[in-house]
Design goal:
Blueprint (H helix, E strand, L loop, with lengths): L1 H13 L1 H31 L7 H4 L1 H22 L1 H8 L3 H34 L12 H29 L2 H19 L6 H6 L6 H6 L14 H25 L3
């Protein structure tokens, strides 16, 4: 297992797409600074301004970028034929997938939290002299939300990995992640009440705020999940994707 982990770490950091995905994820911090400067200028002109916090507003960019990293961690091997060599070195397919999941999980968990903390810290530092609504709380108070966001980033990356194994297609896996993040939330709102709010509470974009509070006032209303249930639902996404990927990996030839 140790050899498999080292091999997957070497492959992940030697692929150009990994650094491209990391660069796209790091844009969250840059956009957060730009947004804070812009919102601060409006606050100076109009007085106190209730603005969306950049670590929340730009979270989908971070989630999507690192989900692509998870997809590319496996589909790039299928595209180049490297998967045959990987299975020759690590013939147990379950061990290979587990090693990929551990490496992708640790990398995205670390990168996600670092980018979130940098975005948070930079925006609060810049907005210190402005009357912005997102400047009212401290890092200690906001740490649960930042941690929940970081966990969601890792969950999306592992979903991307599982879908990449299942589809063996970069485009197909990325489209599936986009559907989970952006398409399904727009579809379920057309369901009849109360099924629309109940279904919406189970979707990935709505799980992060439910992880940190069971008394939220949001568009989900009475359909909110308690934090423990939201965490289970969030963890179920990568578990199901990786299980599906493992079953198909076992059954199919390379």
């Amino acid at each position: 297992m140790r050899a498999a982990l080292l091999a997957e770490w070497l492959k992940l950091r030697s692929v150009t797409s990994t650094w491209q995905a990391m660069g796209a994820a790091a844009l969250m911090a840059v956009l957060g600074v730009v947004w804070t400067i812009y919102a601060g200028g409006l606050a100076d002109e109009r007085g106190a301004l209730q603005a969306a916090a950049p670590e929340q507003g730009f979270l989908p960019l971070l989630q999507m970028s690192l989900a692509v990293l998870g997809v590319q961690a496996v589909t790039s091997e299928y595209a180049t034929g490297m998967m045959r060599a990987s299975l020759t070195v690590v013939p147990r397919r379950g061990t290979l997938l587990l090693a990929k999941a551990v490496v992708v999980g640790l990398v995205t968990l670390t990168a996600g939290h670092v980018i979130l903390l940098v975005t948070y810290s930079a925006s609060r530092l810049i907005s210190h002299n402005h009357r912005l609504g997102f400047n009212e709380t401290s890092l200690i108070n906001d740490m649960p939300m930042l941690s929940a966001a970081g966990i969601s980033v890792t969950a999306l990356a592992l979903v991307g990995l599982g879908l990449g194994v299942a589809t063996r297609s970069t485009a197909g896996a990325i489209i599936s992640v986009v559907a989970l993040l952006f398409v399904l939330p727009g579809v379920v709102i057309y369901l009849p009440a109360p099924w629309n709010t109940r279904a919406a509470s189970l979707l990935l974009p709505n799980l992060v705020p439910q992880l940190v509070s069971d008394r939220l006032s949001s568009r989900l209303g009475d359909g909110l999940l308690p934090p423990w249930a939201a965490l289970l639902v969030l963890l179920a996404y990568p578990a199901i994707a990786l299980l599906a990927g493992f079953i198909l990996l076992k059954r199919r030839d390379v």
